[in-house]
Amino acid sequence: MANNWSSVLEGSLKAYSLGSVIEQQDASLIISLLTVFLSILVFTFSHKKKKEKHILPPYAPGSILTHIRMCTSANYPWWVLEIAEKLNSRVFMFKLPVEPFSCKVAVEGVAPTVFTSNGEVWHSKRKAVAAAFSSNHVKRMTKLAMEFTDSWIDNTLSASFSKNSNVSGSFDVAKEMVSITISAITKTAFEYEITSEEKEQLAVDLEVALIEFTRKEPLSKWRRYIGLLLPRRRHAFAASQRVRGLMMKIIEMCRKLEKPTPGTVINLVMESDSFPSDEERAAQLAEFLLAGHDTTAYSIAWILLELARNPLEQKQLREELSSLTPEEWNSSEKLKMVIKEGMRLHPVAASGSLRKTGRDITTPNNELIPKGSLCFCPFILLFRNPDIFPIPNKFKPNRWKNPTRDMLDAFNPFSLGKQNCVGQSLAKAETQAIVARICSEFEMIVEDEGDVDFFLTLKPVGAQLRVCKVV
């Protein structure tokens, strides 16, 4: 029987041809290949069956148009929180017909920047500017930011105190912090002294351009084809050109510097081959100006507002700061906890970031997120998760005294991975320094709670504070 099987096998092997007759000694190779092939089939089948056991996350309520509209609306942060509560899940799907909305920077029609590019282009540009945020440059830029803060305290805040009064006039905390951070970034990163008129015009132009290109256009693609017929779109193009003009002015002023500071943002952008034209340089400067001033400014504004709402927390922070020298303020544990809690409760980048999954992911509820899925990661959804942060809507800095592993993993306001915020070290240093400087000298009081708005950033609007000098 064995001999007959050997003869059959031998005959079969000799009959099998791959361009030439396979010799008898190759029988073991063929058997091995067949074994591997069958193993792959078994694995593929079992893997497919395993995937079939998983279910996809639920869809958020509403139609495709509702989802597109809400994803680009001022209510987006509150909408996702509402969905999470309704579905009792923080993992759900949107009905979107396209890839992520293309985000045009205010300088319309230019080449990709660090934020808008990917792959080798992104890597080249990010590598070119990363050194501008080294520890030495962060110290230099933070020092200058403090000088602008001192100037604001001396020339604006102190001047608002009426005669024989210990209470200042009210001020819009968000607007004042934006003014400080714009002055700081243009001076420290671009070596340019921006005027008050330029700051005011820049704020208006950025808002007009970004509303058109990041909020309206994704909802109405036809706007790009009949744009000249729409007054608001024409205004947006004009605004973007004014922003471009300011960036070009900054570039020309840089060229005239006799001794530019080595390693600044503008110095690296001007000298790097990754930015070969003035158009690319202007786009990158505009992006850094946009991303670098309002996120830090609104984070500081939210923290100051929460301290004014919570006098006891404010008092405890001031007492700890008073026991330290200004050079030691960044070591204050209370300061670190206050800042973390303010950024958790009011993440300025509330919509978070976008990521595409590189593999299948299974949630704790056995829900499948397939490979290649586009994932929205709203920070407000992470940071106000009651399973991780008890009483999530309350300002409680002491929750960070002994944080759990889940708290530390969930709190990532500057995003994660290689495409995280390149300027996060500067943002942290400036926030610590400015909050400590103001709180150490003044007691803050809420004059008007104002309102909350979301457009790219989560910000307090019309929130008015008064301060009292600490005796």
Helical residue percent band = 40-55%
Gyration radius, in Å: 29 Å
Quaternary arrangement of the chains shown? single chain
How many helices does DSSP assign? Answer: 16
In percent, how much strand structure appears in the residues? Answer: 5-15%
Give the overall form.
globular
| Low-pLDDT runs | 1-25, 33-51, 100-109
Structural class: mainly alpha
- Major beta-sheet overview: 3 strands, antiparallel
Mean pLDDT over all positions: 84
The counted number of beta strands is: 9
Strand order of the largest sheet: 1-9-6
Report, as a whole number of angstroms, the end-to-end distance: 106 Å
SSE ordering? HHHHHHEHHHHHHHEEEEHHHEEEE
Provide an overview of this structure.
This protein is mainly alpha-helical and 471 residues long. Helices cover 54% and strands 8% of the residues. It has helices at 2-15, 27-53, 64-71, 76-87, 119-129, 135-157, 173-188, 196-219, 231-255, 265-271, 278-309, 311-322, 333-345, 379-383, 405-410, 424-441, and strands at 171-172, 353-356, 361-362, 368-369, 374-377, 442-448, 451-455, 457-461, 464-469. Strands 1-9-6 form a 3-stranded antiparallel beta sheet. It has a two-stranded antiparallel ribbon with strand order 2-5. Strands 3-4 form a two-stranded antiparallel sheet. The protein starts with a helix and ends with a strand. The model is unreliable at 1-25, 33-51 and 100-109 (pLDDT under 50).
